[in-house]
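Hey, does this match?
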Amino acid sequence: MAKIASITSAEDFLSFVNASPTPFHAVKSARERLEKAGFKQIKERDSWSSTLQPGGKYFLTRNGSSIVAFAIGKKWKPGNPVAMIGAHTDSPCLRIKPVSKRQNDGFLQVAVETYGGGLWHTWFDRDLSIAGRVMVRTMSGTIEPRLVKVERPILRIPTLAIHLNRQEKFEFNKETQLFPIAGLAAAELNRQGKTDESKEEEKKSEGPFEPLATPLQRHHPYIVDIIAEEAGVEATEVVDFELLLYDTQKSVIGGLNNELIFSPRLDNLMMSYCSVEGLINSLASPTALDKDSTIRLIALFDHEEIGSQTAQGADSNLLPAVLRRISVLPASETNSERSYDKLEDTATAYEQTLSTSFLISADMAHSVHPNYPASYEAQHRPEMNKGTVIKVNANARYATNSPGIVLLQEAARRAKKASYGPSAAAHTEGVPLQVFVVRNDSSCGSTIGPMLSAALGARTLDLGNPQLSMHSIRETGGAHDVEHAVNLFESFFVNYEELEKKIVVD
């Protein structure tokens, strides 16, 4: 009987992505897993000198949409290496405009703004809802964020019937023809028990001065009511919000042999999930950090899809600031090799740390497409479920170079092999890798890898699991590649201290 590969990791990933329709929710999902594994929250605004200790596990967030987590080896010394994996929490989507209330030909519509480079035609005729962050006024008068996720579909972008549109190519205007409908104006008036005339009179009524129109004025009131209910407050207590649209259809395992994943946001929640799980798994043993002199770190950034040049993006000071602060952390007083001398010069500890550190930039890769084989370079055609893909580009759209490839191969060689079936034998070693370059006559995307490698000067490699339909509202990936990447990342963290010393360049 043929062995059936385990899809346990893939099923766990589905729970992660289904709970994470927005970057805010993705960070919430990540922190819940980290807290369960014993990580403690710290804040950028606080001093870390008395909080962080060798052997400790910590995380911090910025803007609620980016998160950095790290574990400090008990043998840590200032200037030692940091093993890092970076990914991103955002995906192309439609975001509700600051003034979204629209009405046309008896329909209530919601104005949206495109975020990132999405395949926007895939958003038509889908059951859509809203999720994001709402700022609410509490009973004490403070303003605090609440995450909301409306489960039921309330929006839809309908296509024009083929009888009225015989164009060979599906083309549309993103400003005028990408408006979702939210319902019928008459039905909303009926719900409120109003006529058009009474509604107009309500508009004319005066209230307290507001420097900016309230959410109830800028958006359809019933949408604000729904958001408020999800946030557990009254509609008048909603001060502002950042909401995006998402497809209510759940992520699922698919394919004849359960070998595929059909899901939104594979780019890049799959690599975010694998980063979190790889770090947690590397610390599963109670003695995992006892002899480790490095720091194991993951950073999940917002705004990669729009260039990363924001306060919480990869092109901000978030990772450099964290690395600068942890690079000078004192060694444990019980460190038998050497106690930390407070008079020791740590002025160059940050630069020393960067010179010996390594960053894996983890962002999804392209699988070969059977219907478009000519779009791929003949000898670089990654396949699903055959391992994580190393991404190479001569023009530095990716940051990969040969020392990085050598290091990753060693980590892959030592990684746990994917398990098979419920009665599988003990894990053996080795997970597969693939390599990808684009054709010379094709454009190439980029990642957070090049910008971070330039900012930090740390050795960097770009990789990702292969997928189809990147930037579509529904994407396709390999179910077994989830476990491949988790095991690869676990091995990277466990073995980096030894591998860093063996692969010498400068």
Q: What stands out?
A: The two ends are 51 Å apart (CA to CA). The first helix runs from residue 8 to 18. The chain is about 25% helix and 25% strand.
